Amino acid sequence: MPTESTESHRIADVRITPVAFRDPPLLNTVGVHEPYALRAIVEIVTDSGLSGLGETYGDAGHLARLRAAAAQLTGVDVWHGNEIERRIHTALATDTSKAGHGMSGMVTGSSTVHRVLSPFEVACLDIRGKAVGRPVSDLLGGAVRDRVDYSAYLFYKWAGHPGAEPDDWGPALDPAQLVAQARRIVDDYGFSAIKLKGGVVAPEEEVAAILALREEFPGHPLRIDPNGAWSVETSIRVGKELDGVIEYLEDPTSGIDGMAAVAREVAMPLATNMCVVAFDHLKPAVKADAVQVVLSDHHFWGGLDRSRTLGNICDTFGLGLSMHSNSHLGISLAAMTHLAAATPNLTYACDTHWPWKDADDDVIVPGALTFEGGAVAVPTGPGLGVELDRDALARLHEQYLACGITERDDTGYLRRFEPDFDPTAPRW
Ligand SMILES: O=C([O-])[C@@H](O)[C@@H](O)[C@H](O)[C@@H](O)C(=O)[O-]
Ligand SMILES: [Mg+2]
Question: What's the rounded Cα separation, in Å, for the pair 38 and 384?
């Protein structure tokens, strides 16, 4: 007879470790990635001896909020998510700053409490899964797929960081170089969808890049995301030029009103991870019919459970669902994979920055997550199914201390080489 466990698992200790990992000079509309990307690794330990992992942004402002929240969590049972959220609310009650959100100013309207809550919620789910011997996907309603498809994420990029040797990706500054980048990434990982980070060069050049990708990859769904860099007029023009070529157009312009104006004129779905980034954005966006696909992201939607709620709301209103990413490590990939597996209407291939990090730059024991045919198999062991590699954590923490970066600042980094660079949108 199986034994029932009613044992409580109270939070006894929370450790937050900032880490840095090497990142190539990937260009976007606000600047360029610095040589290191930052993350914070959250470990919760319970009085019953279990531990769970979470991963989030590593910017100084965010770290300070994580630490303020962590200090309030001792003694709470990991099953009591409402109490955890209440305490985090209280801890951040007087925090009105928008600084240190980890996205170089590209996503500013999301909920601070939800950003801070997210890694704690993921770590508690990891512990709950271990306590009952079930994968996190089961705690989210059960996996509806055993493999999660991800998308190739192409970037315009420099050959290498200024002053350093070119990296082994080389430059990607024109259509031919982007096609070569796509070929390598698709061959290496097997991705069957392709996203291009746009908003970097003139829209005509980015359209030419998409058309070149279409020719080279006739069967791959394509997307382009200029992060709101285009005016409404430019977005409509590009949207008409790419009609029938891309599966969705992501954040061509800023704001719900701007997106709604574009949506009225273009045929393809508009997607966003910029104008709908919190629950109170959903009503105005639906009312204005501004977007047809929302990119979820558990790092700013308050964790895995709330991201599933977002999925249900999208389903209710007939919105498509995809998944956004930022530079991330293996704990986040595990969480994204469990969430996507347990979200029936997440039917688009999810974004991931995974191929851009060095294989040996991670904090988890290698081997738990592998790409095959562009997909990651959903871990079936208890919890998230990934284990912390303490030596690697220490090494990436040393890298954090040594690299001197404490806030992601794509604009500041680009301005070191192009002092007149102005990211103000719309750029075109
Ligand atoms: O990593 C980047 O440069 C991306 O531009 C990222 O910061 C965005 O948040 C993201 O991937 C997006 O889809 O907007
Ligand atoms: Mg985006």
Answer: 21
Residue 374 lies in a domain: yes
pLDDT band, residue 4 (cuts 50/70/90): low
Q: Which residues are marked as active site?
A: 197, 324
Query: Alpha helices of 248-405 — where are they, by DSSP H?
Result: 256-263, 282-287, 304-316, 330-341, 390-403
Question: Residue 86 carries which side chain, given as an amino acid letter?
Answer: R
pTM above 0.95, yes or no: yes
Same domain for 378 and 278: yes
What ipTM score was computed for the predicted complex, to two decimals? 0.95
Q: Which atom of ligand 1 is nearest to the CA of 324?
A: 13
Q: 221 and 261: one domain? A: yes
Tell me which ligand sits closest to the C-alpha of residue 325: 1
| Domain around 20 | 11-137+392-403
Buried b (16+ CB within 10 A) or exposed e, 3-28: eeeeeebebbebebbbbbbbbbbbbb
What is the token pair recorded at 382? 């208890």
Q: Quick one: which ligand is closest to 352's CA?
A: 1
The alpha carbon of 211 and the centre of ligand 1 are apart by a number of angstroms equal to 22
Number of domains in the chain: 2
Q: What is the pLDDT of residue 2?
A: 45
- 3 state SS of 146: coil
Q: What residues are in contact with ligand 1 under a 6 Å CB criterion?
A: 26, 28, 103, 106, 197, 225, 227, 273, 324-327
Distance CA 383, CA 148 (A): 17
Q: 428 in a domain, yes or no?
A: no
The whole-number pLDDT of residue 105 equals 72
pLDDT of residue 214: 98
Instruction: List, as ranges, residues with CB under 5 A of the ion ligand 2.
Output: 225, 250, 273
| Same domain (yes/no): 55, 171 | no
Are 167 and 37 in contact by the 8 Å Cβ rule? The answer is no
